[in-house]
Amino acid sequence: MKNSMRQSLSLAVGAVLVLASPGFTKGLPPTVKQKVDTPQKHVRTIGMDEYRKLAENPGSALIVDVREAQEYATGHVPGAINIPRGLIESQIWNHVGSSEKTDMEKPIVLQCQSGKRATLAAQSLQDLGFTHTTAVIMNLDDWQKTGNPFIK
């Protein structure tokens, strides 16, 4: 395996491990921290209040929960479809049509547990050419605690 491929693989694995842990950047190499933090500078983000308005208005945007299937199965925001972060590039087409017939300006809102995976997923979709991607930056536990709609 070439060094560049090995480095990319290491960064990807590191990013997954980082995103899955509560103190996601503490004590990690600067390259991993940069990989996780950089997309947020280029991705539109919203918080809980704006997300609530979107979730209460079905059809205003495609809402994608990018947590793993087992996380989604324990509960999710009504109307959110599940496409795990690691599969977003290949599975988004099942929900928006083929790459030749897709409205690349379709609003897509990405949500996870805290916002990190959603931010990376939004960046990935931007890289594919989608122009209206938004990451939700909030704690999903707080969403539930404040009485927002949640299906278990």
Helices and strands, with pairings:
Layout: H1 3-20, H2 30-37, E1 44-46, H3 48-55, E2 62-65, H4 69-73, E3 81-82, H5 88-91, H6 93-96, E4 108-111, H7 116-128, E5 133-136, H8 140-145
Parallel strand pairs: 1-5, 2-3, 2-4, 4-5
Helix pairs in contact: 1-2
Describe this structure as you would to a colleague.
Helix 1 packs across helix 2. This protein has two domains: 37 residues; 106 residues, Oxidized Rhodanese, domain 1 (3-Layer(aba) Sandwich), CATH 3.40.250. A five-stranded parallel sheet has the order 1-5-4-2-3. It has eight helices and five strands; from the N terminus they run ααβαβαβααβαβα. It has 152 residues and is an alpha/beta fold. Strand 2, helix 4 and strand 3 form a beta-alpha-beta unit.
Question: In summary, what is this structure?
Answer:
By secondary structure, the chain is an alpha/beta fold.
The class by helix and strand makeup works out as alpha/beta
Tell me what portion of residues adopts beta-strand conformation: 5-15%
Whole-number count of domains: 2
Count of DSSP strands: 5
Provide the residue-averaged pLDDT.
Answer: 83
Number of helices: 8
Strand order of the largest sheet: 1-5-4-2-3
- SSE ordering: HHEHEHEHHEHEH
In whole angstroms, the N-to-C terminal distance is 44 Å
According to CATH, the homologous superfamily of the largest domain is: Rhodanese-like domain
- Low-confidence runs: 1-22
- What is the 3D shape? globular
Q: CATH topology of the largest domain, anyone? A: Oxidized Rhodanese, domain 1
CATH C-level of the largest domain:
Alpha Beta
Radius of gyration, taken over Cα atoms and rounded to an integer in Å: 16 Å
- The CATH architecture of the largest domain can be given as 3-Layer(aba) Sandwich
Helix coverage percent of residues? 40-55%
Q: Main beta sheet: strand number and arrangement?
A: 5 strands, parallel
